[in-house]
Amino acid sequence: MNDISVLLPVATTVDPDELYRAHQSIVNQTTPPTEVVLVTNQSLPDRIEQALTDLVKTSAGSRHEHVPDAEGLGGVLQAGLKRCSEPIVARMDADDIADTERFAKQQSVLMNTDADIVGSHLAEFRDDPSQPERTRKVPITHEEIADWMSWRCPLNHPTTMFDREAVLNAGGYRHFPMMEDWDLWARCLAAGLRFRNVDQTLVRAQIDELTDRRGGFDYVQAELRMARLLWELDISTRRDAISHLCLRTPPRLLPGKARQAVYRLFAR
Questions:
Q1: DSSP classification of residue 8
Q2: Is 242:202 a contact under the CB 8 Å cutoff?
Q3: What are phi and psi of 138, to 5 degrees?
Q4: Sequence-ordered strand ranges (E) for 126-173
Q5: Contact (Cβ atoms closer than 8 angstroms) between residue 162 and residue 191
Q6: What are the phi and psi torsion angles at 213 (to 5°)?
Q7: What is the spatial distance between Cα 112 and Cα 103, in angstroms, rounded to a whole number?
Q8: How many Cα atoms occupy the beta-carbon half-sphere of 47 within 13 Å?
Q9: Biggest distance spanned by C-alpha atoms of the chain
Q10: What topology does CATH give the domain 4-208?
C-alpha cells in the first residue's frame, strides 16, 4: 500500500450506484490507497446504509465512520480527517470518478516537490462520464494559485491530495457553510503551505442542476464571510474584498436560468 487515506463524505442524498462507482475508481488505482474512510453524520436511508455495509465487507481497507455530532460538511470532513491514519489524504466525493493514475501522479508531486497540497482540473458530466459538459480548469503553480486565492477558489476540492499533518496544523476543516474548501485553502496559504495543481484532468464529477444550488441569499452571506476572511488573513486588500463582492454576489441573486448561463460561461 502507499501511505494514502481517502476521505469520502457520504450524504443522505447520494445515489448508491454512484457511490459504488466512485469506490470502484478508488480501488482500481495504479497506486491504491491503504484505506477509504467513508464518513457520515446523519441517519441514512436503508439503500445507502446497505451500500456502506457492502463496501466495508468487500474492501478490506474501507471503513465507515459515523460522527453524529459533526456540524455540516466542514465538521464531517474534519472528523474524517482526524480519523485518517495515513500521512497523505486524498479527497473524493461520492459521485466522483478518479482517473486510474490520479493517486500515483499526485503522490509523486507531493514527494518530489515542495507542495503540501495538490489538485487537478475537474471534468463535469451529467449522464455519461465519457461526455463531459465542461472542464473546471485551475492555475498550476503556487504563485498562480496564491494570486487566485483573493478572488476565486483555486483548487477543485474533490481532486485534492494533501499532507495530513500540515493541513491539520493549519487548523483543518471547520464549519464554514458552502465554502468549506476555499476557507481551508486560504488558511493553509496564510500558514505558509505550498500548493500545486497537476495540469491534467484527473477526476470526473457528476452534476445535476448545480447552479440552482449555488444561488440565493445563503450564498450571498457565504460570499460576505469569505471576503471578510480573505481580508482578515491579509490575502486580499479592502479594495480586493469590495471587488470580490461586486463580482461574485450579483450572480447569486439571478434567476436559475440566468445563473446557469453565467456558470457555464465561467465554469465555476
A1: E
A2: no
A3: -130, 160
A4: 134-136, 161-163
A5: no
A6: -85, -5
A7: 14
A8: 10
A9: 54
A10: Spore Coat Polysaccharide Biosynthesis Protein SpsA; Chain A (3.90.550)
